[in-house]
Amino acid sequence: MERTAVERPAVVDQMAAGQLAADEVAAGQLAAGQALVDEVAADEVAAGPAGTAPAGAPGSMPAPLERAVYGLFVTSALELAIRHGVTARLAEHGAASGPELAAALDLDGETLGRLLTVLRAFGVLTADPHGRYAVPDAALPYLDPREPRYLGGFVRHLMESTTERLPRLDDRLSRTRPGAEAAAPEPLDEPFAELYRDAAATARFLDAMWQLSFDVSVELVELAGLAGARELVDVGGAGGPFAVAALLRHPALRATVFDLPQVGAKLAEARATHRLGDRLAFAPGDFHREELPPGDCLAFGYILSDWTDETCLALLRKAYRACAPGGAVLVMERLFDEDGYLPPATAAMNLAMHVETQGRHRTAAEYLGLLRAAGFTGCELRRSGREKHLLLGRRPQERPAEGGAP
Question: Model's pTM, two decimal places?
Fold first, then answer.
């Protein structure tokens, strides 16, 4: 029997008391869960879960507030469903009941039933009149491990890394009060010291970044117009999602990923998987302390949003020096709309970045301003159909010396 809107808060309280330290995980899960819930189930959530009063009915909680209050449970349920193979099995084998899933995956039926109920109530999963659950068509690309848009690794990163750091927000909110200790400036490499603390953590982070970036990189490569480029330098390119997409599209292109030494093994896997041979090179280094390798196209994918405006400008000036005259620099990032608060996923990740990095998300105008300040011309925005967009600038052709050859 479906639970009513009146019964649900009591169940939530029991779950919270026995299972979760809500003060440690709530903020991260609110930010992490709502992007996916809003993307795949906005219509269902706005209408109100089955068996509850429609959103906006007298006495009902407004739908946005309901999603915020209970979002931490949705993200927890989703991450567990991904980790234990529930969503993968539904994606591969089709609809199944709770008991069928529990038997197939050797899971506790009572616990699984409660997880499935939460995911159904918030529209992440659907169920037919016979209680057989399914992944909605709109969500399949994100919850099927065989799909390039699969978000399993990213959700795990949010749960294991982001939520661990979110309690720092309280300290940051209070740091201007009398008596509060001033926080010491973080070293430039501090944001990634924890992410790269060992081989397993490095692999998890790089897998999450690949899942966020490779599929959209196929579109970004087209927007970049790389037909005339010969040497791409992917600055902070991690496991190489953009570089690989570019090499697969342009057979005459060569690419070098410039990143910390820890990512070399993962890049080697990508090189072997896609049979790129010596067309995909790795240059270990630290872009804060070293100059960038030369090329006629330098790319920053999800890099500048990790750093302050001052650091971004310093990196773009290094890119200008490394870029061949007439070459291009590519900045690929989530963007705030000009209103500064939408889309919601960008706002959520902007909050997470306040404790995970030293940067923030920006508007297109802000990035274009940084490109121009670094000396690039012809700067423009090229929007993709996804959450990651391209900003492009060019280094001017060198003018011949007066009296010299044209």
Answer: 0.79
